[in-house]
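thread: overnight batch results

M.L. [08:02]
morning all. the overnight job finished for the chain we discussed friday. pasting input first so we're all looking at the same thing
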Amino acid sequence: MNAPHKLLVLYTGGTIGMQMSADGLVPAAGFEARLRAEQAAHPERPAPDWVFRELAPPIDSANMTQSHWLAMRDAIVAAVEEDGCDAVLLLHGTDTLAYSAAALSFLLLGLGVPVLLTGSMQPAGVPGSDAWPNLFGALAELARGVTPGVHLYFAGHLLHGARTSKLRSEDFDAFAEVARPRHGQAAAELPATLTWRQPRQPANVAALPLFPGLQAAHVQALLASGVQALLLECYGSGTGPSDDEALLAALREAHARGVVLAAISQCAEGHVEFGVYAAGSRLAATGLVSGGGMTREAALAKLFALLGAGLAPAEVEHWFALDLCGELRD
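M.L. [08:03]
and the structure it wrote out:
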């Protein structure tokens, strides 16, 4: 909880640093000079000493990919191991901010320093923008001391990196921790293969919301695309079409050949509990592992991190069901 001695500010792009072009707002480089000028104009704002790094080229977070997550992870690890940084502030676009916060939560398990992600709904420099309040608010939080782990700071709130979703597309108060039931068994000890020291590889992970009219052919086509894991967003407490034998057979066959099948609830405040309804039990019997009250962002990121560590399907299922960083337990 001590204030950092050397903070890395890692700029990835996003609305916070965007500037106008002929086609509209686009990510722009050179944000360090703008940040230093703003800080010099307001020396009363608390902020740790910081160094600046920028991912090149800066991106619109709507274009976020797994390779960007891995680049962020590598930059953070290098800053801690090689440059002696003891905290990180990562500037990011809002469209996929919650996804990246969740991904880094699992890619940096056990790192031992605070990592805060923030961004803004309007660019820095726009009158009334939330950019500087969010950025300097995050710096002030770090100056006061933040517990190790990945956090998201937005609109004056410090949020858990693996429990947060974007709920609004226009309001400054766009993010919140989703009020899902949180219970489950915590991992007693993390193996070295799951900690921040373990480099990761890309993984082919997909999500599919269940909906009335979903056909077995839809599921078969997705499973035939080479996915290593499929996250089903089920109804309610984990139910789905239990009378479609072709669909159930497609899931069973995929699981038998090593595809990890996981389930979360579509409900904003729901969680999976397969045994409540027969429809849930039949779906679970195809090989699904419960994601409890995890958000979509957390479940996808967790599957990516586990598969990217090279774990076998059975190992992925084992660790997916356990709480690793507070995604399943308060």
